[in-house]
Each structure stands twice: as C-alpha cells, then as structure tokens.
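A quick aside before the break. I want you to see a complete sequence-to-structure record at least once, exactly as it would be stored in a machine-readable document. Don't worry about memorizing anything.
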Amino acid sequence: MTQHKRQQAYQRGKYAEILALLFLLCKAYRPLAWRKQMVFEADLLMKKNNVLVLVEVKYRDDIDDALMAIDAKKLKRLEHVALMAQKQYQPLFKKTPNIRIDAVLIGKYRIRHIKNITLL
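That is the input. The structure line, written in tokens, reads:
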C-alpha cells in the first residue's frame, strides 16, 4: 500500500469515527473518549445510563464487508480493552458499569449500529 493510499484510509477512518460519534450522540450516548490508546485502540468509548460502551467503527463501501472486517481476533482485543476501560472509567458511574461492545458500520449510503457484537 502506498503512502498516499494509507493517508486516504486514515482520513476515511477518522471521518467514519466522527460520523459514528454524531450518530450515537443522536441516540443519547455520551462520549468518554475517542481513539483511546490502551494496550489496543478503542475507536470510541461511550456511556449510556450505567453502560460503558466500547464502539468499533468500520467503514467499507459495502456495509456487509464492514461487518466481516470484525473477526474473532479483533473481538478478543476489544474485550481486553473493554475490561481495562471498565476499571479506568469506574469513577464516572454510580456503580460498577456494565460493559458492552458495539459496532457502527458505515457504508456509502448506510449506517448500521449493532449492539453486543460479541453475541454474533
């Protein structure tokens, strides 16, 4: 992959994450962090009621391709980040927050929010 293609992919990823953030704000989620670096990166960390939601954002031309980009290895990493985030963000919640891993899939003409992607 050329430097130019890498730069384009990076910019598309940032655009998708901002779009996902705005989409979730409209659904009453509160942002806690964007591109949070722990051992692995969390695209978005959001809060809704007493739930800490780690959001994986994927952009592809076809939304089904975006879903296929989240494989078992990626899910394992996300679970690890979610457990670390639960400890770090505990003070922002009244009690120990429930944690959930969601995906926001962005295609050319659609956005799809899938809750609990570990259950797929």
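Two observations worth writing down. The beta strands are 30-37, 41-48, 51-59, 98-106, 111-114. The mean pLDDT is 89. We'll return to this after the break.
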